[in-house]
Design a protein that fits this description.
Elements lengths: L4 E5 L11 E8 L5 H7 L4 E4 L5 E3 L3 E8 L4 E5 L5 E6 L4 H10 L2 E2 L14 H4 L2 E2 L2 E2 L4 E8 L5 E5 L20 E12 L9 H9 L7 H15 L7 E5 L5 E3 H10 L6 E2 L5 E3 L2 H7 L6 E2 L2 E3 L6 E4 L5 H19 L8 E3 L7
Parallel strand pairs: 2-5, 3-5, 4-21
Antiparallel strand pairs: 1-2, 6-7, 7-13, 8-13, 9-10, 11-12, 11-13, 14-20, 15-17, 16-17, 18-19, 19-20
């Protein structure tokens, strides 16, 4: 039976390794446990998944439901695809590996992204030319206030770049219990449009890649560029890649001819890589006490050990102010901030 553990440290439950306390914590392993836990909570509720996309700045004045709902199933569809369902507490990369083992394609570009299945739609996770919304079918979620189960189809989710309705209107209101994906057979044409994947496959001499090959390439690339949270505290990419008007990009190109840009859904705007901006502003490898900008990828902020959430947030604000001064571009955190946002600089 699930129960509340009072005054629990969240250090083991966030990949930054920040040591703060919640009012109480409960491990949710079945949907049936949720109504009782909600009824016995003596304060506001928050839902925590893998803790891979949050920065905890202070102790959390909330009762935290840790989503650990398990289970993966697959069902063939009439169109020849397969509907895969995964519990909200399933580790994301374990789901990717399961689908590859079942001969299914669609999630391979999203290999090794930290976190859980239930958190993936909230962030509309994406990497190497693929976003979750590309393979998303629907999800089931419990409204923590009413206890009712709701189904959200793709058109209900308002997916955007690292964004969804669950980060806005339904923030802290739902616990996502199960997510459904429509995947293809392993013979489906894989997406190798992202340059790093194509280059890595070419280096390995793979000319006709399958889903497993793409996954292996993504795992290799991510492992060489990004720190392992088990060794260096981090939450992956800390900032979103900003989108700016074409006119602004053209003006910046006159000053910075190497400034990259990528197309967006709008013909009037382009996306520029935040990591490039941060590196050009001189932040790559910079350290402030126990917090720093990762030397191999400027998009990642790290906790070298003992940093507080406020220290990391203060560093993030320094980076944001510097990029804005150099390029006139305002960076936005991709990471969710819990417990306040520290002191402004």
């Amino acid at each position: 039976m699930a129960y509340w553990q009072p005054y629990t440290t969240l250090r083991p439950y966030n990949t930054f390794g920040i040591d703060v306390q919640a009012q109480a914590l409960a491990q949710v392993t079945a949907v049936e446990q949720i109504p009782r836990l909600v009824a016995t909570a003596a304060g506001p509720l928050r839902v925590l998944g893998g803790g891979s996309n949050i920065l905890l700045c202070t102790d959390i004045d909330a009762w935290v439901l840790h989503n650990r709902i398990p289970g993966i199933t697959a069902e063939p569809l009439p169109n020849g695809n397969t509907l895969v369902a995964a519990g909200g507490g399933v580790v994301w990369h374990e789901l990717v590996q399961w689908t590859l083992g079942a001969g299914l394609a669609g999630l391979e570009n999203l290999s090794l992204i930290p976190g859980t299945v239930g958190a993936a739609p909230i962030q509309n996770i994406g990497a190497y030319g693929v976003e979750l919304q590309d393979v998303f079918s629907h999800l089931e979620a419990i409204d923590l206030a009413s206890g009712k189960m709701h189904v959200f189809r793709r058109e209900d989710c308002a997916f955007g770049y690292r964004d969804s309705i669950f980060k806005r209107e339904f923030r802290d209101r739902l616990l996502i219990t199960r997510v459904y994906f429509q995947l293809h057979s392993s013979l489906f044409e894989v997406n190798t449009a992202y340059g790093a994947i194509a280059q890595q496959l070419n280096d390995w001499g793979i000319t006709h890649p399958q889903a497993r090959d793409v996954s292996r390439a993504v795992v290799y690339i991510r492992s060489t560029k990004l720190p392992d949270p088990a060794k260096v505290g981090n939450a992956g990419s800390f900032f979103k890649n900003p989108t700016i008007p074409n006119e602004q990009w053209l003006a910046l190109r006159e000053r910075f001819p190497q400034l990259p840009a990528y197309p967006t859904d709008s013909p009037e705007r382009v996306k520029v890589p935040a990591g490039w901006l941060i590196e050009q502003a001189g932040w790559k490898g910079i350290r402030r006490g126990n917090a720093g900008v990762y030397p191999l990828q400027a998009l990642v902020l790290v906790n070298y050990g003992g940093a507080t959430g406020d220290e990391i947030w203060h560093l993030a604000q320094e980076v944001m102010a510097s990029v804005n001064q150099a390029f006139g571009i305002t960076l936005e955190p991709e990471v969710n901030i819990w417990g306040g946002k520290g002191k402004k600089i």
